């Protein structure tokens, strides 16, 4: 049985990491029939491969089921009128309310027959103009009054679960998939939006508890921490507190997590069993161990309910129930058997949990505790407990480096302080306040104020530690360094008699020797997926040049793509080329100028006409065109032409042109150029048609300035010096921003397209686009510039489906 459970777990984990396409229904049925037929024929010890097959089928089936519930990818952006049931606690933003809801009924709209799962929606605040335009939408229907348990009928603008996909950037598509979110969107202003009914749920009580905490701690800097520990509402935690917790490795302590669920179960179970033993008649009926175990499970379930039964708390509750079941049934389970059984139970409930860091850190911590305690004399007193805390903190450093790209040096020391502090001086006070709230709000407030004071002291201590040493930021850790560090962890936890055990710390601290990413040294160019405008970087030898700009606000190209990439690769930006001075979408430049103050800015026609530089194996030069400042990369490996995008609001009237030699400046009248779009046949453009505006909504810009070079490459078909020429341009980006209630900062509608000039027939052929394929990186390979998309590099099943929806 243990071999089968282990095989099942490993198969599920491997599937979640490697699956690029779901299995067809026929394949799933065939595999299941094969398992049923083979099971009685195989010897008992050789049935574990069947468990592995079941793991593969189970993970693939769940992925397929979730994808079928998503907004159909072919629908793209669509409007719908739905009846929704709000789940979870709505989050208040500066000018919006973010909430999650399940679909009760589709009233209007083409959203597919199987739309299910969770919808992640925003309801933006209305301005004065909208109030005048929609007088029937009364104040009672404002988004600020959204509560869990309400049923609404709302007009929505929905999109398939999608997001930017950039190297070193946050993988939003993966994040949505793990949380089983099947569509995103926002509420449209309409008189049809109305509340149908409201009924209390556990989330309703969570909301009221969080509101009571806010009323009793109105000016507290620790309010978000108190709410996080009480009801898992964490949006109030400040960025400063998150930084301190992250750099000290204590972020898991200041929100309801698996550790808290286990701690509450153990503490409450022990107290209940102790009291139970004091009443002999009760002990004669039910042993104190069983009574305490059941009480501990009940307490853990109650605390998980306060957290809204989030996926991390569900995993922790499953683990608690597995160990409790063994005790209640009086079965002697080996610790590792219980560990594997708990992992299998978690993967049955949520097979895609391994995509999140929480799965690895929680099970990793339990595994470290088992390795560090089994077969050893722990002794009495405080030291064994402190030693175990230190071992867990050190052993999880490789996992932290892999997931978060930094090493919190102070994790062992900080956890020595924070774990008992939070466990005995914060969480009990928070929970006592929750219990007292129905009886007396003022009394609950006094207890929460005591917890607030305790948290203030803890954050002061952690802040002092973080200010002294902080954490060590590392480059993206190569897999072999993680493997070496993991071997060091195993040596650290091994028995003392093992030869070579002294290698533990050197192997673990090999993480400090992680070299800068190899891309930092070789010449590399990246066209980012930002959804807002052009964002292009070229770098070699640690020096970088940036071309582009983008919208301001929360999702600007700097914070979404450029800043994480520059930080991960340790680059120094020497120059920044602004395609068009004073562009409507230049909001991100303000953030860039504040972040990189020593950069040379090429932001006017004079500088653009005179700027040249060498970067690695490439020569970079800017030129003034009618559209603005264009960039040309030239090298032995090929040529890339990057042209300015069209201003927002004009691309619908100016859908883009291919400018080639015409009647006045004909160089070769026989030249023909066309753009092939994957989803439709565009007209073939000849020499006499070059002045016409074509390819509405799917165009590339080829400036007149480059016509001679393009023609030379086309005509000289026999030349041995022919090399690829790539052209980059922006699609129409106005369609997604129509409507009176759209916040353009909330998501992109623009699409950077990449085309390649064929040296044989003179045609432009689209080969990739950022909306479909993610960021596009150019590597010098085999003598040519070779583009590679993020979907090609790391595409998984949750990327493939959503990307197709944005074509």
UniProtKB/TrEMBL annotation:
List UniProt keywords, sorted A-Z. Answer: Cell membrane, Membrane, Transmembrane, Transmembrane helix
- The record places domain ComEC/Rec2-related protein at 231-493
Q: Which Pfam families match?
A: Competence, DUF4131
Q: Name one GO biological process term.
A: establishment of competence for transformation
Topology term for the membrane: Multi-pass membrane protein
Chief localisation class: membrane
Q: Where in the cell is it found?
A: Cell membrane
What superkingdom does the record give? Bacteria
Q: Does the keyword Cell membrane apply?
A: yes
Q: Where are the transmembrane segments?
A: 24-42, 253-276, 288-306, 336-353, 385-404, 416-439, 446-465, 477-494
Show where the DUF4131 domain sits. Answer: 26-191
An example of a Gene Ontology cellular component annotation for this protein is: plasma membrane
Return the protein name: DNA internalization-related competence protein ComEC/Rec2
The source organism is: Halorhodospira halochloris (Ectothiorhodospira halochloris)
